[in-house]
Amino acid sequence: MAVYAIGDLQGCYDPLRRLLELIRFDPASDTLWLTGDLVNRGPKSLKTIRFVRSLGESAITVLGNHDLHFLALSQGLLRDGKRFETLSKLLRAPELDELVDWTRQRPLAHYCETLDTLLVHAGTHPKWTAKKTLARASEVETALRGDDFVELLRSMYGNTPTRWSGKLRGYDRLRFIINCLTRMRMLSADMRLNLRFTGSPWRSRSRSVPWFDYPEPAWAGTRVVFGHWSALGLIVLPELVSLDTGCVWGRQLTAVRLDTEVPEVWQVPGQAVPAPAE
Description:
Layout: E1 3-6, H1 13-23, E2 31-34, H2 45-54, E3 59-61, H3 65-74, H4 88-91, H5 96-104, E4 109-112, E5 117-120, H6 130-144, H7 149-155, H8 170-182, E6 186-187, E7 193-194, E8 209-210, E9 223-226, E10 235-237, E11 240-242, E12 252-257, E13 264-269
Helix pairs in contact: 3-5, 6-8
């Protein structure tokens, strides 16, 4: 009865199957945590999402920014250009409506009390405990699963507001929560989101710091498992597990076992694809 976490898949179905074979994953007894971004960029988004869905309750995946792009595309809210051409087969799938509904039901954050571990795609805010992270995520989940979900998808794009306040309301509030949980990497000294930075934090010339390096975070004591930041690579610490190891860029797909005293790590080669147009 093992619990494994795997980093961003981004349509890399074949490496996923090789990794599951390597760890001898048994959906009848084991649980798989996925850091989100199941689709886009890689060659087999449709096959990947179909497979993860087929695992039922043995697979827990949080929503990543590319999963939200898929939902927006499915509702005609984005241009289906070169940036998203790897989603074309998924968007033509005969069961598209079912896949959209399934994706809309995925959480933005998941917490296991037994392991005291929080799963998110990008990170969590320094002022949010695990409990508050789940509460903030629930606000977006409720809107995403509601009748007006298309308006949420239409309104989620943008980099403002950059700073959290409990006084935020409406789509400004929901947009901040989405950006924090699915896009965040760096924070300024006054905890403003720096959403323009995408590279290695050690090469940053700004005064921003990685979200997990902010002093005395409220989530301290809880292990946070996340992906999203391929330039960061693999980190396995008692309170932090970074799992986006650049599978879609030809590096590795990584799994970490979470329910052992010392986490075990497995990797398989990734699947390089051409860089998408910005």
